[in-house]
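Recall the central idea of this unit: under ordinary conditions, the amino acid sequence of a chain determines the structure it adopts. In this exercise we apply that idea directly, starting from the sequence alone.
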Amino acid sequence: MKIRRCSVLYIESREALAIDWSALFAGTSTLAASTEWIALVPHLDREIGIDATELTVLGAISQTVWSERDACEQRLDAPAIARLLAKGLLIGDDAEHAAVRERDEVLRAAHWRPMAALVHTFSRWTDVRSETGMEAPTFQELLDTYGEPPPPTLELGAPGSGVKLPAPASGLLDETMRKRYTGRNFDLQATLPLAVAARLLQRTFGAQQVRRIGDSATILKKTSPSGGGLHPVEAFVLVQRIAGLTPGLYHYHPIEHELRPLRAMDAPEAAATALQMVADQQWLADAPMQVVLVGRAERTFWKYRNHHKAYRALALDAGHLSQTFYLLAAEAGMPAFITAAINDVEIEQMLGLDHLRHAVIAVCGCGPASGARDMAELRYGETGTI
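Accordingly, the structure predicted from this sequence is:
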């Protein structure tokens, strides 16, 4: 049997403090510190505790080159090797370890930058709800708790040295941009017209042009920029109240301009799904349409293999798309929203996604406003506190 270390592995030292009662009674230092080693491994999607012997073994076995287990056991601690194989930090080439090896090979094949894979894996939420930590403090509550925030802008250069610029000329986008705001008071009785939903999806996520490169490769031209022209962000739509559509989950096909059903729901289930996706942010879950932005890591990293900036470009792509979505919603007379405070793991399960191949980045949505102001909204031209 041959073994090697898993492809992406980070070791974090965590210090635990406890009261040293013997020291306390002796009148000396009362705090005792102990260090534990935690392995962070994206292919297993969890943290794993290891001891000092296992740490030494991990540092002595290659993550690339396969080594004979017997030879490793002769020069290293054999019981520690067995424990690390059981934990999935060492990979075996036999049938017993096939499941863990497959997950590690998926991660290798995706060409993640190791630090990006770590950040992506361990920044995902699961089961964050109002009763388990999701909060929505008002700005005043933040001021009361943390005091004044840093100033809204940097003040650089000597006073009076600035070059005054001419007033901006009026443009075609001015009215739409000024109508753009994040909605938090959606009309629960309103239905989104199918034609409006279709325009939002096509003009934001749809291919405006399809180009053939080489014998079979295809690239898309969209209304937003994309790192490397790859357009790796897919749109999955949760329909709650769109005229003519059954509530449920759909995938938007950007070339065919169609919604492909993934799972039909009744209205209560769709509402509950929306609430779970956005971690109990009811003011966002009320929108008649939510769109999950999912980055295809395998497409981005096909070009940017093990690249320092690739994961950042993937997040920027989602940001570009969300702003286009906002402006189209404003053009249609509706507010929109985007949030990264989402239950990534549950969304992956709903859509059948693998976090090593797909990055659930954010959820956006839109719909008619209710006219109420139960939740604060920052609208152009309005004054007052929030």
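The longest helix spans residues 310-331.
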